[in-house]
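User: I'm putting together notes for a lab meeting next week and I want to include a structural view of one of the chains we've been expressing. I don't have a solved structure, so I'd like a prediction I can at least talk through. The sequence is below, exactly as it appears in our construct file.
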Amino acid sequence: GDYNNIGMYKAVEEVVADAEDRARQASRTMPECLSAGQYGESPVWMRDYSSPNDTAPRNPMAQQMIDDALGALGHGVERMVMGHTPQHHINAALQGKAWRVDVGASAGVMSGTPEVLEIIHGGETEQDTINILSRSGKKAATERQVVEMLF
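Assistant: Thanks for the context. Below is the predicted structure for the 151-residue chain, given as structure tokens.
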């Protein structure tokens, strides 16, 4: 593909610089309604459901926002799966509606332990089964729910 650059780079810094340049270029060519720049607020770079990592989202409106977004999608959509805000482990916030799956596995990020979110659709009559798979085995989704503080 276009990004099969094996042997093209001599140092990690070159890889990072090239990736950052591609991100800037993509942000410039993306419609304004989708991107407010690499770190701006937009559907592409929004972190309201994931930040800070491994805990309840900081934005007090996050629950209402995700409820509204899922409702607008319709068709019984129950959850979103998202990345780009590294967590120490795959986890769910906002009453299980925001699954944060970026575990920072890259050595350039957090050298996190690879994990996989497994969602087995239960069909029309049964609940979905959600597990986290890792080298140490399978964990039920209930073990990775972030508890929001209610005030």
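A couple of points you could mention at the meeting. The longest helix spans residues 12-29. Residues 74 and 83 are 22 Å apart (CA to CA).

User: Perfect, that's what I needed.
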